[in-house]
Amino acid sequence: MEKSFTNKIKTIAVALFAGCVLSACSSAPTLPAATLHPSNTTDINTYKYLIGAGDSVNIFVWRNPEVSGSFVVRPDGMITTSLVEDIPVSGKTPTELARQIEETLGTYLRDPVVTVTVAGFVGPFSEQIRVIGEASQPQAISYKKNMTLLDVMIAVGGLTEFADGNDAIIARLENGVQKEYNVAIDDLIKSGEISANVDMLPGDIIIIPEAWF
Description:
By secondary structure, this protein is an alpha+beta fold. Among the domains are: 56-119, 2-Layer Sandwich (wza like fold); 128-208, Roll (Outer membrane lipoprotein wza fold like). It contains 4 helices and 10 strands; from the N terminus they run H-E-E-E-E-H-E-E-E-H-E-E-H-E. A 5-stranded mixed β-sheet has the order 7-6-10-8-9, with no helix packed on it. It has a 3-stranded antiparallel β-sheet with strand order 2-1-5, with helices on one face.
C-alpha cells in the first residue's frame, strides 16, 4: 500500500514537471506596454548615439580641408587621419569625438574647430539588440531611439513556424545585473495585441524558443 502511494506521488511529480516544461514555466516578470512617443514632445531620457566599428565618420575641420575627410571605424574601434593615427572613437558620441579631435589637433593647428557626423549607424556591440532563436532572420540590430519590440520583430521578419513567441524573453543588463522579462510575441504580431508591445533598450537580447509539439 505504502509503495503504491509513493509511486503515485512520483507520477504526480513527474506530470507537474512535464507540465512546467511544456508551458516554458518561468518566474520572469513582464515589462510594461511600450510608451507612446509623439514627435512633438521631448524625451527627457534623450538617447545619444554611440559610434561603433563599421560606422563611417565624417570629420570636418573648419578652414582645414586637408585634414578633413570621411573615415571608416576599424574593427578595433579606431580611425586614422592624415595628421593623427589610431584615434579611439568607438563608444563615443559624435560631439565627444569632435572635442577629442580638437584637443588632439591643437598640437598641430591653432584653435581648430571640428564637426563630426556619422553614417552607416552600426554602433558598438554593447548598444546593439540581438535576436536569437526562432526568428525568421536572427541577427544583431543597431538600436534606434524609441525602438519597440514590434520594430525589432519587423526588422527580423517575424517568427518561424516553429516558434513559441509567447514564451520568449528579453535578457537585459540593469545596474550590472542580468535580468529576464517575459514577452508575448505571438500575441503582438499574430493577434495584434498592442499591449504586448514593449520598449527596447540598447544591449537587449531577445530569446525566442522553439515550441513543444
